[in-house]
Amino acid sequence: MPMRWNPEIHPDEITPEGLFRQRRQIMRAAAGVGVGALLGLDPWHALAAAGKDLPDVRSGVVTTADKETPFLSATTYNNFYELGLGKEDPAKWADHLVVDPWSVTIDGAVGRPGRVALDELLRPHPLEERVYRLRCVEGWSMVIPWVGFPLGDLLKRFEPGGSARFVAFETVHDPERLPGQSRDILAWPYREGLRLDEAMHPLTILAVGMYGKGLPNQNGAPLRLVVPWKYGFKSIKSIVRITLTEEQPVTSWNAHAPEEYGFYANVNPAVPHPRWDQSKERRIGTLWRQDTLMFNGYGEQVARLYEGMDLTRNF
Ligand code: MTE
């Protein structure tokens, strides 16, 4: 059962902090080696790729009591088409993504547009852990402890103008290194978008890490979006551009197959995808299927954003 949203409850109030961390590390290490071996991957590869230590991560809000997905599953079963179509490809080809140096352009309807080096972009934002469910449109789900900060805090710094209604995001475009971008799968670079009120919602974060460490490349290093009430494809990886717009931006999957992937992509068990039933999901690491929750269980926090909208048309 999902726990009721309570921003006041921190994981260290449920379990003493030291014990909580220790228990999680042991579980992760044990689970990771098993999954890696099953997939025929070197279990240490993903660990080695998993970025740097992060400074001062606060234990933030816990939005689910569900068991965390083992680290190795979350880092070896990925969707990142720039690094291949198979679920294990992104971990295998992770080194092709060069994340240092990295900068992000913030432009469009903002008072202070510019291209900012990653360090400078992150400096004012305290990092916190957010344990979120992630539901993929393909019918599987995970529970991931992200490390990040609210996207809204970053947007405010760049002063959104009165005409801004949407936020568009772009992934790095580097076909010489990213093998998937030479294939005609999507119109590259990968693009995503949110309505401005969705982007400003406190549950929407930019993640720079997971499981207490920097993001592995296969999970979207060095900076990715996480919107927990939407299907996983909205959570764009390896972001290099954030643009505030007046018009609804073009997004990759919606442009590719509009009848299959809506702009909103809110998790909705009542609206089936043409190829996947959305009423159930399989939690990675388990064999059975469980009910999918409206808005992925975050309805209490986000349903008001969609009041008066027909969610079968605006899927
Ligand atoms: N971002 C980019 N740039 N390219 C992608 O192929 N896949 C999306 C999303 N972000 C994708 C992306 C999809 S379909 C999902 S389900 C999530 O990333 C998966 O995130 P994870 O691999 O960290 O679980």
UniProtKB/TrEMBL annotation:
Q: Which GO terms describe its molecular function?
A: oxidoreductase activity
Which UniProt keywords are given for this protein, alphabetically ordered? Metal-binding, Molybdenum, Oxidoreductase, Signal
**What does the record note about the cofactor?**
Binds 1 Mo-molybdopterin (Mo-MPT) cofactor per subunit.
Q: Which cofactor does it need?
A: Mo-molybdopterin
Q: Where, by residue number, does Mo-molybdopterin bind?
A: 78, 81-82, 136, 171, 219, 224, 235-237
Q: SUPFAM superfamilies from the xrefs?
A: Oxidoreductase molybdopterin-binding domain (SSF56524)
Can you give the residue ranges of the Oxidoreductase molybdopterin-binding domain? 99-253
Describe the processing and modification events after translation.
Answer: Predicted to be exported by the Tat system. The position of the signal peptide cleavage has not been experimentally proven.
Family of this protein: Belongs to the MsrP family.
Which HAMAP family does this entry report, sorted A to Z?
Answer: MsrP
NCBIfam families associated with the record: PRK05363.1
Q: Which PANTHER family match?
A: PROTEIN-METHIONINE-SULFOXIDE REDUCTASE, PROTEIN-METHIONINE-SULFOXIDE REDUCTASE CATALYTIC SUBUNIT MSRP
Name listed for the protein in its UniProt record: Protein-methionine-sulfoxide reductase catalytic subunit MsrP
Q: Which organism is it from?
A: Candidatus Magnetaquiglobus chichijimensis
